Amino acid sequence: MDVLDFIDLKQAEALMAVAETGSFEQAAAQLFVTPSAISQRIKLMETRLGKPLVVRTRPIRVTPHGQRVLQYLHRAKLLATELANDLVGDQEDMLSVALAVNADTLSSWFLPALSDFLIKENILVDLTVDDQDYTHELLKAGMAIGCVTAEVEPMKGCVAVPLGSMRYRAVCSKAYQARWLSDGTTRESLRKAPVLVFNNKDRLQADWLITHFGLTEGSYPCHYLPASEPYLQAVSLGLGWGMLPEVQMAPWLDRAEFFEIYPDHPVDVYLYWHHWQLQTPKMERLSKHIVEMARQYLIQP
C-alpha cells in the first residue's frame, strides 16, 4: 500500500473528531454530519488498513493502531498548515499546536516563559492539562505534539530532553499549624490533620506520607481540589497542608505566611520535554525555547 493510499480527508477528520470527543454523536455535531456517517467513514478507513482503529464503547477508545494513525494525522496537519503559511500566508497567519503539560507547570513557569515567543511566532496553543505522570499518554495517543512529563524514556520516533526538577515542599498556613501541628509534625498529628490532594492521580502527598511517616492512604482525612490556584489558596486559608512547588509559591509569599511542616524533606520531580524527532521549523524553535526557559525556572542537577 502506498503511504498516502489510506488518507481520505473526510475519514481522517472523522477519526480525529471521535478521538477528541469520545463519541460518534459529538464528532458528528462537530463535523455537521450524522453519527452513522462518522461510523461509516471510520469503518472504511479500518477496512482499508485492515486494522481496528477504535473500540466502540462509551466513551469510544482509540486502539494502539488508531493512536499511530492519529499521531501521523496530527503531524501531517501541522506540517501542511506551516507549509501553507510559508508559501501563501502572511505574517498574520497563526499556527495552532497541541501541547500537554502538568497543572503545576502551567500555573507557574510555562506561560511566563513562552508568552513572548508565542506572540512573536504567531503560535496558538491548544493546551491539555494532566498529571506529569500521564501527559506522556496524550502524546502517545496522538492528542499532542509535545508534552512536559516525568516520563524518562521517549517512545519510538520521539526525543526526551531534560528540563530540570520542580521542587515541592510540604507546607501549611500558620493558623493550620497552630491548630493541627502545634506539638510538632508527627505520625499521630498527621493522621488527624486534613491533607489537600489535587486529584486521584496525585501521588505526591501519599508517597511522602508513606515514606516519612508510614501512613497509608485512607488513614488520614483528605480534601480533593483539582485546580492549581484554588489548591494553593486552600493551603493559605488553612483548609489543609499540601505539597507546593517552590516556583509557584514565590508570588504568594508576601500575601500568606506558609509554614513548612518538614523542611529537610522536599520532593523533587524531574521533568522532561518530549517531542517528535521530525518537527517543522517553527516547532523546532518552540521546543528549543521551552527547554532553554525551563532551565532558568527549574532546579538543575
UniProtKB/TrEMBL annotation:
What's the superkingdom here?
Bacteria
A Pfam family for this UniProt protein?
HTH_1
Q: Which UniProt keywords apply?
A: DNA-binding, Transcription, Transcription regulation
Domain HTH lysR-type, chain residue ranges per copy: 7-63
- Gene3D superfamilies per record: 3.40.190.290, Winged helix-like DNA-binding domain superfamily/Winged helix DNA-binding domain
What protein family is recorded? Belongs to the LysR transcriptional regulatory family.
Name used for this protein in its record: LysR family transcriptional regulator ArgP
Species the sequence originates in: Leeia speluncae
